[in-house]
Amino acid sequence: MKQINAANLIKILGNGMKDNEFPLLKVSNIDWDKDHEEFDKLPKNFELQWGEKNWSIEDVSEWVSTKFDWVFNSLNINQVGTWESNSGCCCAGGCSCC
User: What 3-state DSSP class applies to 71?
Assistant: First the structure.
C-alpha cells in the first residue's frame, strides 16, 4: 500500500505556463509490489508528459498504477520542466488515454 502524507496532496500549480505548455514529470525510484509475473519488466524510472496544468502526487500515482496495471509501495515525482503540445490534445501521457 502506497503512503501519501498531507503535504503530498497539495496541488502543484502550473502558473506562468503558455496555453499549450504542460508539466514534464520525472517519476523515479518506483518500489513495485514484487508479486507480479513480469516484475523485471516494470519501469523503475521514466519521464511523463502530464497533460494538465495542475498535478498532485495522488493523481500521478493513480495514473502510474493504472497505466502499468500494478500496485507499488512508493515512488518519487518531481517536475523537471515543461513540454509543449502541438496537437492540441491535453491528455496525460501524450494522448495515450484518448
Answer: coil
In terms of Cα–Cα distance, which of 83, 5, 88, 2 is closest to 47?
83
Q: CB of 19 within 8 A of CB of 85? A: no
pLDDT tens-digit readout, 13-47: 445 788 889 999 999 999 999 988 889 999 999 99
55: left (phi over 0), alpha (psi -120 to 50) or beta: beta
Between the two ends of the chain, the Cα-to-Cα distance in Å is 28
Q: Please, are residues 74 and 29 in contact by the beta-carbon 8 Å criterion? A: yes
pLDDT tens digits along 39-78: 999 999 999 999 999 999 999 999 999 999 999 999 999 9
Could you tell me which of 69, 74, 68, 78 has the C-alpha nearest to residue 43?
A: 68
Give domain limits for the chain: 6-84
